[in-house]
Description:
- The protein has helices at residues 2-9, 15-23, 27-32, 39-96, 99-109.
- It is rod-shaped.
- It has five helices and no strands.
- It is mostly helical.
- It has a domain at 44-106.
Amino acid sequence: MAEAQDKKDIEFISPKQEEAELKKFTFKQWISGSVLAKSSFRRQLPFVIYLAFLGFLYIGNRYHAEKLTREINTLQRELDELRAESINTAAELMFFCRQSQVQKRINESGLGLSEAVAPPTKIKRYE
């Protein structure tokens, strides 16, 4: 008897009625929210939620990609500045390592060192 009563409570809608129901959504129904109560909309709700989720993923992915691009540009500018500083430092070091510059700095500091007059000799080890 419970089954017979359940069958009476089930409402069957023909496909033509369903199409007509979908077509007669008005602006007033959208604003009032009564569209959300229709069975055709409720049946499509999981798909709509899935599409919204994908949309959020795409938007989040784009923001993440833009953030990474900005970071890469910032790091590239910093790398260029550091490369220029490295080249400048290497050039200064080469300049200060010249024999004339070393002699000049020794004389200025007053260490009393002088340039070697005799060439270096090789020390031989006897065994």
